[in-house]
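Much of what follows relies on a compact textual record of a protein's fold. A record is reproduced here so that you can trace the correspondence yourselves:

. . .
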Amino acid sequence: MTLTKKISNHNFKAFLWHAGFLAFAQNFMDVDTVIPAMVIESGGNAMHIGIITAIMLGASRFTQLFFAPYVSNIPYKKKFLIGGISTRVLSLFALGGILFYLRNHQSSAILWLIFLFITIFALAGAFTNISFSDVLGKSILPEKRKTFFSAKQTIAGGIVLGAAFLAKMVLSAFDYPVNFAIMFFLGASLLLIASGGFWKVKEIEPSEMRIKSLHDFIQILKRELKENKKLPHFLGFINTQGIIISFLPFVMLYAKQYLNAQSSDTGTFLLFKVIGIVLISLLVFFFSKKIRYNKILYFNVALSALLILLTFFIKNQHSLILVFVMGGMAFSLFTITMNGLLLEVSTNENRAIYTGFAGAGNILPALVPIAGGGIISLFGFTAFFVMYLVLILSSLFFIYKIDCKK
């Protein structure tokens, strides 16, 4: 069956349903503010923040490299979307239950359980993302893809802006750990509603690529790296610019340890991060047909470098508001460009496997947060900021080599 304009529009709306409620849910399980603040208040330190950030933002994506061979062998992948998001829902309910019912027990036991269910949540997301990229790529017409990503970010930004106020109220109205327990219960409920969008998607085209073994997968990766000249530079881009998505959790640590930030401040930081996402997403949405990816990529490197330098010179928590606005902008731009570039360097036949290849692009995003936690513990934040700045600037080489014309 051929993908028609009618089916494409139907799927466009279904994916936007998912994106909208997912955005609503993400405020209550935000990886840059809520989760690191919860870990710190549960007794965590710099190394714990590094490990949890690596799990959430780097290591989970790296595991796509191992999930991809299995997922690629299944022609229709909608069931993986539903199964993956259901696992995430259950893990969030479990996190809320741990914080609410075990609040009087030893913090070390709670911290271990938090790490367990955060890991399950993150791995389920990585597994789902492979199927998501495959189904999305063959369910929406190519000329609508950039519009979808920008519309997704715009709608999500508008929703999370309102939800951020609610999250801020919850974090301020209750003490730890009840406030975080309520946050995760709300996030799980909204994520469950978001799964309805996956149920509505019409997956009409099977994927044709088959992989017999992990060895076969590695051979395919080697072949594609030779034949597709943009793939190595795409992976280099993710490995360098991709670390910016793990920067804000360390800003939370900095605010808690040195600027005396409280739970109510966590809600404020989340709100202004969302404002940054909305601002940049609106700009990309209105100019999506006029702006090439290259210009967005270069701008995001400059924005990320400025973000790191600004954080280094800030001496009070109120000035961190600007940091979180800029952090939201940088996060949003990386999400739009990374997903867009993946669709451009792949085809309908190999998109799932290319999503797995993208996992190899998360080696540094998986290792840098752990290294960052160690560097902060041993040498302080100055050395940490320098490391991030050097890696971000090195992404300029890969952006130049990709030279995306679209």
The mean pLDDT is 78. Residues 107-139 form the longest helix (33 residues). DSSP finds 18 helices and no strands in the chain.
